[in-house]
Amino acid sequence: NGYDKTREEFLDAFGRDIENKDSLHRLNKLYASRSWDRFGVVGLTQYDQNLAYMNGNNPNSENPTTQILPELNAFAWQQSLGGGFEGSLDTKYDYFHREYGDSGHRAILSPELKYPMKSRYLTVIPSVALQETAYSLTSREDVGDMTVVGTGGREEVIDTSKIKNGFQTRTTWTGGFTAFSEMTRTFDLAEQPKADPSLAGTSRWTKLKNSITPRLEYSYRNHVTGQEKLPYFDTDDRIEGRNAVTYSLTSVLDRRRDSVVLSPGSDGEPAARVARDYLDFLLFRVEQSYDIR
Fold it and tell me: Tens digit of pLDDT for each residue in 44-74?
């Protein structure tokens, strides 16, 4: 039907589904970004129309919906710092506004340092990251218990009576490592076609490469106490500790295709040559994580 056709076109063009017409929320976003070789910036303004507080429904003065007006992100991509070290930096600033509840500023600074170590058979990358978060409320209002959707889609209850006014900070750190190796083997599938004009348009797969990558990751993040005193705007405001091991195995199949193509020759006659292209056409990955906490 018409809905299914429009929905498929929407998914193909935008990579997301059509908004549920029964949803009480309508998100309006203005997004801009710019990136360079080593840096990038992103700006976002988001207004959430909560229909439960519009069109003569509940009074707007009781609307607890969080508006992002605006959000600014700046990134320094991972790059060499000298001495074998690599580093990156993420910064994020938000101003959150509510008609009913807390409003205010939040800034997050997240530097990360890595030291890759490579040998013939194994690559190990230890890393450490720091996250400093600062809050400054412009409006403080106790709204009692507030039910929110937390990490992993679980519902959580925030007791807003415990939130403190004024300037507050939170410091967390993450450490860990990634270790992986790669094993490859190339298989011959067919002979390379001859560069003959009579074979123009002929193409065939001539080689197949299988790459297998076992990987082990460990991540630790400290447990932060006293977060109930911090304002709550989104899931970044309640960070859980982490002590997790993740292991995975990835297999990738890559084919080489040789094709006979024509190009102008020096004497004006078509000249044949063999062109090659490569494609990772199949990826298989299994992964398992275990939280030691």
Answer: 999 998 888 887 788 888 899 999 999 999 9
CA–CA gap between residue 41 and residue 93 (Å, rounded): 12
The DSSP code for 22 is: T
Of 33, 31, 128, 30, the C-alpha closest to 85 is 128
Would residue 4 be called left, alpha or beta, if left means φ above 0 and alpha means ψ between -120 and 50 degrees?
alpha
Taking phi over 0 as left and psi of -120 to 50 as alpha, with beta for the rest, 56 belongs to left
The DSSP code for 7 is H
Check: CB of residue 287 under 8 Å from CB of residue 213. Answer: no
Under DSSP, the state recorded for 292 is: -
Q: Could you give the CA distance from residue 91 to residue 101 in angstroms, rounded to a whole number? A: 26
- CA dihedral sign of residues 201, 204, 207, 212: positive
Residue 207: strand pairing partners: 188, 256
